[in-house]
Structures are given as structure tokens and as C-alpha cells.
Write a structure and sequence with these properties.
single chain; about 180 residues; alpha/beta; 5 helices
């Protein structure tokens, strides 16, 4: 559980750092708007918009999986700690690639997304939406499930996995960004 919260905090910290670097010319709006075509069931505004805060969108494949729920909770806390306008989107029907793709595309098209964290259902279904975010130069963190794409990792897109084999990598980024384990 502690490792899952740490992973969510790491993702948010990466996004904050990366969006500050890659979107320095983009103005940040405090508008509290919901992407078109989504309902209150599948969209949650998790942080109150604040002046100057970055707009981060977290797209989760479902809120049934305990790991996804833990990531959501960790992201909410990291969003508050880092003065972010966090929007969490989940499909009405869990693990639905079409809905995940639509939610991701809507976040990108809104112009209000400074950074994107996506927890895809599989490695293929979300690729077109992630490509649009990449083309819009929006920093992207892919959580857990690597995607099958030709987009190079490292400049605008990163992949963060969790599991026992990834603990050294998480510890490395904790030290690099001085993230303290709670």
C-alpha cells in the first residue's frame, strides 16, 4: 500500500516538474470546466482551481481495482501538496478502451491540460489519444501498462511501472526529487 501511494506521488511530482519545463510558455487557466461529453459519474474535479497552479489530468482505467483507488488517493494528496488543479477521469464502464481514449482526447482538446497521467487498460487501445497529447507537446506519464507506440520515451513521455522489481527505480526518483515516504 505504501509503495502504491509512493508511486502516485512520484507520478505527480514527475508531471509537475516536466510540465513546468515543457509548458513554460503556456498560460494556466483557473477555469473549472468539465470536458465535453462526460458525466459527473466519470469525471471528478479533485482539487479547487488556484491561481498559477498547473492543470494535471489523471486518466484511470477504473476505480474498482484497489491499486487504481490507491493511485487516485495518492494523486489527490500530491495534487494538494503541490498546488495542482487535478482532474481525475475514469470511464463509466471500467477498463473500456474507447471511453479511455475519448476522455484522454477531450482532456488534450480542452487546452487546459498542462500534463497527463494515463493508466491504460492495455498496451494498444490508448495509443491514438496518447499520440495526440504527444503532438500537442503535453508531458505524459504512462502508469503501469506500457503502451505499444513509436513515441520515444524520455523527452515528453515516460513509463512508470510498479512491482517488487521496480522498487530501486522508485527509490532513485525519490532521492532525485527528495520525495519522502509517508
Amino acid at each position: 500500500m505504501k509503495r502504491n501511494v509512493m508511486t502516485a506521488a512520484l507520478c505527480i511530482t514527475m508531471v509537475v516538474t516536466l510540465s513546468a519545463c515543457s509548458n513554460s510558455g503556456k498560460s494556466s487557466s483557473a477555469a473549472d470546466s468539465q470536458p465535453a461529453g462526460t458525466s459527473a459519474q466519470d469525471t471528478e474535479k479533485e482539487a479547487k482551481p488556484s491561481e498559477g497552479g498547473r492543470n494535471v489530468t489523471l486518466v484511470l482505467k477504473n476505480l474498482i481495482n484497489p491499486f487504481c483507488v490507491t493511485v487516485k488517493e495518492g494523486a489527490e494528496q500530491a495534487g494538494k501538496d503541490n498546488d495542482l488543479n487535478l482532474t481525475i477521469l475514469t470511464p463509466v464502464q471500467g477498463d473500456n478502451n474507447e471511453e479511455l481514449m475519448q476522455l484522454t482526447e477531450q482532456a488534450v482538446a480542452s487546452g487546459e491540460c498542462d500534463a497527463l497521467i494515463v493508466f491504460p487498460s492495455d498496451s494498444i487501445g490508448i495509443v491514438p489519444a496518447v499520440q495526440k497529447a504527444y503532438d500537442a507537446n503535453i508531458p505524459i506519464v504512462i502508469l503501469n501498462t506500457a503502451i505499444n507506440s513509436r513515441i520515444p520515451y524520455g523527452k515528453v513521455m515516460w513509463h512508470v511501472r510498479t512491482g517488487k522489481s521496480d522498487v530501486p527505480a522508485v527509490k532513485h526518483w525519490q532521492r532525485k526529487w527528495a520525495i519522502k515516504e509517508r
